[in-house]
Amino acid sequence: MQGTEAKDRSAPDNLDDYLGSSVLAGTSKIFVRKGWDSVESLKSMTRKDVKALGLTKQQRKAFEMRNFLGKIELSRYADTLEASGKTLSSLRASSSFVLICKYGMEKDDALRFLEHREENRQSKVEKLMYEECIPGCIF
Fold this sequence. Notes:
58% of the residues lie in helices and 0% in strands. It is mainly alpha-helical. The chain has one domain (15-132).
């Protein structure tokens, strides 16, 4: 597949698999009841959407991790990273060395995980720049 990213071979195709067997186990009914009935719909959820479900803080953090990994097609690492007890933000502050050695990520996957972190950081900087921009300024 030249020029495109390979699909995550272990990407879950149903809600229960996507939500995992740990912190979010058994919560698929909550998502379905609120209209989030497919893996693709879960990937489009915002923090506000997740908070509206009434999940615990621990469940919201686990969902944030799984959702991030699903969006960048690295779902195969969700169980391992969730079991680490680390938050997504602390893992995103890690080095590729830590992700590879401690969590068993393949090198390309660790680099993609960290590359996405940089893109997110850039978009936050751009947003701040826009907010500071004087009215009429072309951004």
